[in-house]
Structures are given as structure tokens and as C-alpha cells.
Amino acid sequence: MNAAPEPCGRRRPRWLETPPLVASRLPCALPAGHDGPHEDAIGQQWVWLPPELVDAVAVLCTVDRVRQAFATADTPAEEAER
Ligand SMILES: [Zn+2]
Predict the structure, then answer these.
(1) Domain residues of the chain, as ranges?
(2) Assessment of whether the complete model's pTM goes beyond 0.85
(3) What distance in angstroms lies between residue 25's CA and the mean position of ligand 1's atoms?
(4) Residues in contact with 68: Cβ distance below 8 Å, sequence separation at least 6, in sequence order
(5) Which residue has the higher pLDDT, 50 or 81?
(6) Distance 3 CA to ligand 1 centre (A)
């Protein structure tokens, strides 16, 4: 009789947590070393992204928001750069 394979156990990063928090903090229930996205016991899936990529996207989104906040209605952000 074979023992059950060890579960992956990885939890989603905090920025992917959504209400209800108890459900979004469930660990991955797939066997360790699985391919594809992680999946918890209630079937919610998520992918792991490198923290450097997440940080880079967050910076780009913030820069865009700041640029829009300081752009005037008659001066689109694209023209303000010139
Ligand atoms: Zn997993």
C-alpha cells in the first residue's frame, strides 16, 4: 500500500488574498512538485509569480496613476512627456 503523496502546501501571496480570508489562505492541496497552477481544497486556483515581477508591475501601475493625477484635462499624459 502506497502512502498518500505529500501535498504541495504552498499558500498564495498576500496580494492575492481575497475575502473571505479563511478561504483564500488555504494551502495548495495538489501533490508536491505538481505542474500548472496551485489549487486549494475547495478548488480555487492561483499561479505563483516572481516577487520581482509583482513589484515591477506595481511600480508601473503607481507611476501611471500619478501621471494621470497630475495631467490636466487639456494636456493628456502622453503630451506632457514631450
Ligand atoms: Zn501547489
Answers:
(1) 1-48, 49-82
(2) no
(3) 13
(4) 77
(5) 50
(6) 19
Q: How far, rounded to the nearest angstrom, does the alpha carbon of residue 40 sit from its chain's CA centroid?
A: 15
Separation of CA 57 and ligand 1 centre (Å) = 23
- Cα of 42 vs centre of ligand 1, distance in Å, is 13
**69 CA to centre of ligand 1 in angstroms:** 40
Task: Please state, in angstroms and rounded to a whole number, the distance separating the CA atoms of residues 31 and 25.
Answer: 18
pLDDT in tens, 5-24: 899 999 988 888 888 888 88
pLDDT digits (tens, 9 = 90+) for 15-71: 888 888 888 899 999 999 999 999 999 999 999 888 899 899 999 999 999 999 999
